[in-house]
Amino acid sequence: MKSKKFRKSFVIVSFLAVPVVLLLLFTYIPFFDMVRYSFYKWNGTSPTMKFIGLKNYIQIFTRSEYLVVFKTSIYYFVGSIVQIVVALYFAVVLTAKIRGASFFKGVIFFPYLINGVAIGFIFMYFFRQAGTLDTILLTLGVPQSKIPLWLGNPRIINYSLASVSVWRYLGQNMVMFAGAIQSINGDLYEAASIDGANRWQQFKYITFPGIKLIISLNLILAVKGAISVFEIPKIMTDGANGSSTFVLKTLDTAFTIHKVGLASAMGVVLLVFIMIVTFIQKRFFEGDER
Amino acid sequence: MKTVNQVKISTALIYLSLIMASLIAIVPIIVVVFASFKTTAELNTTGVLELPKNIFNFENYRIAFVDGKMLLGFMNTLVILFLSLAATILTGTMTAYVLHRFKFKGKKLISDLFLIASLIPSITMQMSVFQIIVKLGLFNTLWSTVILYAGTDIISIYIFLQFMENIPFSLDEAAIMDGAGQIRIFATIILPLLKSAIVTVVILKGVVFYNEFYTPYLYMPKSELAVISTALFRFKGPYGTKWEVICAGVIITLLPALIVFLVMQKKIYSGLTSGAVKE
After folding, report:
1. Is the minimum CB–CB distance between A285 and chain B shorter than 8 Å?
2. Which domain holds residue B265?
3. Is residue B222 exposed (0-12), middle (13-18) or buried (19+ Cβ within 10 Å)?
4. Residue B195: inside a domain, yes or no?
5. Based on the domain organization, do B41 and B153 belong to the same domain?
């Protein structure tokens, strides 16, 4: 009996050892390290770290260059809202009986599978002068003088980049919504149409309540995603022309100008934001369930 | 009641919107295909929407593949994918197996640790992860990326747990009667029955690993360690103005994803959905 118990613990420990060590080593230890570094002035390589208390945090909240990059997130957040609405529309349309549905679904979804660097280049080619977009606009009769520099104008660049993000993730959203719609009991629709409900009424009273949870989940993910945007601006513009984001700025601070302490404080600030959003999400969902 | 005409118009509008969306999805890619077959002179003198003169002009592809080190990038990517997928499947299935089949002290704590970890975007902690990778001596080695991909996450665990539900305990018990140990039960009974879940996780993670840019960019700057995305990113320098070569590189990068998609479309959709619903 004793040996059986011993063997059981042996299995548990040996099976969990590697996954848990990896989890601690690359998530929890870095987390506590980051919090610790955030109170120091340190370049990441020097053997000496200078304790400076809250100075890194004070710098983030008093120097406008650090907070202003949060504004970039607003463009991406608005983009995600548009994305959710459009994705929902296509999910509803494509789960109805429609010819060619799987073709359209595939085409709209495919961008999600493309490598981020490839997407960056595709859209640098798309937005460059005399590139894809300019050519299409000229063909449609828009005068040359009305066409702006899509990636060169600081007032336009974030719209351009946020729309790349929508292009990339729209299909993924759509597939998730479509999956949720398909899991709704089909009898409900049949009963509704017998009762004479039109398509809009069916959407309003059956589809929407059925997928409300996944929509709100995606809204929360949109906030988190917008706060932590970085790949597209990193690849396409490296943060030039006012396209930098908080994460991009954080990574630059750590790896380009080697202020690891300050970057860590920025990481902590970002995590706190994300924790707040997550907390709201939890409250929201608990209030919603049963 | 709607008239026949109204139904026709609304159907037409729906198709119009689908065609528009498809064009928006496809056109930016198609023009890149065009450019990838053009010569430098041709690219500079023809419009973006014009077809290339010679669609068998593979010169740009040759440059991208060989001079642009994309061939090397593919090799490295394949090695990393193979090692890290094998590792993440093992860590994921082992964790799920223990969490599902055993009762023990600290079980709740372990699953909570994985759950909380999923809330922290790892990109925000790279300055301290970097220190750890350097201390482990893995900086500028393939192992840096492999070890960062090797761990498991709550979504994979959920997917495995879901499938584990359907494997009856009686199978384990029968095997124990036959004198099998837990490791043998795991390897010869559980793993084969998890095949479908494993395929799902391999696809989901395979797409993420294949597309991941920042991890290899940060931890493997050495040019011999280029993976597909960092090899392509480096086109920004030397080929900065040679769009025909960049475009060939983009298409080379995109093709494996397209093939995987065409072959496993359904599985990708269902994998995405099963991952999302649980969160």
Report:
1. no
2. 59-277
3. exposed
4. yes
5. no
- Report the b/e string of B194-206 with b at 16+ CB within 10 A: beebbebbbbbbb
**How far is Cα B267 from Cα A24, in angstroms, rounded to an integer?**
32
Whether residues B75 and B41 fall in one domain: no
Statement: residue A16 has pLDDT above 80: yes
Chain B residues with CB-CB distance to A130 below 8 A = 48
- Total number of domains in chain B: 2
How close B39 comes to chain A (CA, Å)? 16
Whether the CB of A263 is below 8 Å from some CB of chain B: the reply is: yes
Tell whether A89 lies on the interface with B, counting CB pairs under 8 A. yes
Residue B8: which pLDDT band, with cuts at 50, 70 and 90? confident
d(CA A74, CA A52) in angstroms, rounded, equals: 32
Q: Would the CB atoms of A23 and B114 count as touching at under 8 Å?
A: yes
Q: Are residues B85 and B184 in the same domain?
A: yes
pLDDT by residue (tens digit) across A280-290? Answer: 877 877 655 43
Q: Please report, for the domain that includes residue B99, its CATH number.
A: 1.10.3720.10
CA distance B172 to B164: 12
B50 belongs to a structural domain: no
pLDDT for position A282: 78
Smallest Cβ–Cβ distance between B28 and the set A25, A29, A122 belongs to A122
Phi-psi category of B17—alpha, beta or left, where left has phi over 0 and alpha has psi -120 to 50?
A: alpha
Tens digits of per-residue pLDDT, A39-72?
999 999 888 899 999 999 999 999 888 888 888 9
ipTM (interface predicted TM) = 0.92
Which residues between 43 and 82 in chain A have a beta carbon less than 8 angstroms from any beta carbon of chain B?
44
Residue B169 lies in a domain: yes
Domain boundaries, chain A: 1-29, 70-117+155-244
Q: Which residues of B touch A271 (CB under 8 A)?
A: 120, 124
Residue B22 and residue B69 share a domain: no
At B215 the three-state DSSP class reads: helix
Residues of chain B with Cβ-Cβ distance to A12 below 8 Å are: 98, 102, 104
Three-state DSSP class for residue A51: strand
d(CA B7, CA B3): 7
Do B41 and B125 belong together in one domain?
Answer: no
Q: Name the 3-class secondary structure at B177.
A: helix
Same domain? B110 vs B28: no
Tokens of B219: 């931890």
Q: For residue A3, give how far its alpha carbon lies from the nearest alpha carbon of chain B (Å).
A: 13
pTM attached to this predicted model: 0.92
B110 and B218 together in one domain = yes
User: Is B52 part of a structural domain of the chain?
Assistant: no
Quick one: B33 and B111 in the same domain? no
Residues of B with CB below 8 A from A260's CB?
Answer: 127
Rounded distance between C-alpha atoms, residue A196 and residue A202, angstroms: 10
Measured CA to CA in angstroms, residue A247 lies from A239, A251, B21 at distances of 10, 6, 31
At the second CATH level, the architecture of A70-117+155-244 is Orthogonal Bundle (1.10)
